[in-house]
Amino acid sequence: MSPTTNNTFFNIQNDLSALNKNLQKMVSAKHPVLYAAAEHLFHAGGKRIRPAITLLVAKATTRESNILAEHRRLAEITEIIHTASLLHDDVIDECKTRRGVATVHKTFSTKIAILAGDFLFAQSSWYLANLNNVEVVKTISKVITDFAEGEIRQGLTNFDNTISIDNYIEKSYYKTASLIAASCRGAAMLSQTNIDLQSEFYTYGKHIGLAFQIIDDILDIIGNQEILGKTPGSDLRNGNLTAPLIFALEESSELHYLLNREFQNENDINKAIQLIKRTSGVEKAKDLAEEHIQTSLQILNNKNYKNVSDALYDVSNYVLNRLS
Hints:
By secondary structure, this protein is an all-alpha fold.
């Protein structure tokens, strides 16, 4: 379900529609192949959850909810950074499909996909600098470093069954939650709120982001091709240990065996998925996601937000309802 079709994001539907149009203009490149590669992924759509949350925080922190042009641009920058990271992730993880279409590196080449990702990161940096707000630049630019940190951590621990839930959460922060947290803080900064409120929205975004990643990882186990837009079990295939698998390993010795041989046999992935489903791994992972959602709600409860408070609260329901 896309935010543009969800009542949670009703107040910002016009902003999200404008965002989709602006993204095409913002990624225009002089080289037609680079443009085609970037457009390929944008055309496939996506959840747009990151810019949606950015816009909701902007509405919550401005007088009479009149968000600024800078807020809209920050939301667009957030989506460009996210898309750039997907281009690189798909190469690293050797994904064949993304959002239901062939990945850029499969459609074009690995070289083009990497260059397109670099191009989008460069474009986002240029637009970020043009916000003319040094503190926002510092906050958002740190995210790109976090992405690299997350990928390195993940790459060094592939198929490592000693990974703990704390290790997993830390990696998930770098790979997913960092961008959402930073964009929430950035939106509050552009609204010229005080430092305490900026920090609260950062923490809110962090926990929403962690919950979002955990739910994504659950869907990789229990979802199907149509829902995921990619083949289920992709994380397993690449040796990425996620919450459902980590919890399931506590109960299944056979799962340890399959992981140790790195799912080499043709049916190992399907076997592993069935084993995880037989344990309480998925349920424990969902409980973990709900814990982070509850933490984000407690932060909202500490303040009396304005007329979009319901939308900010409903973001949590949107995240969890992706399982239904």
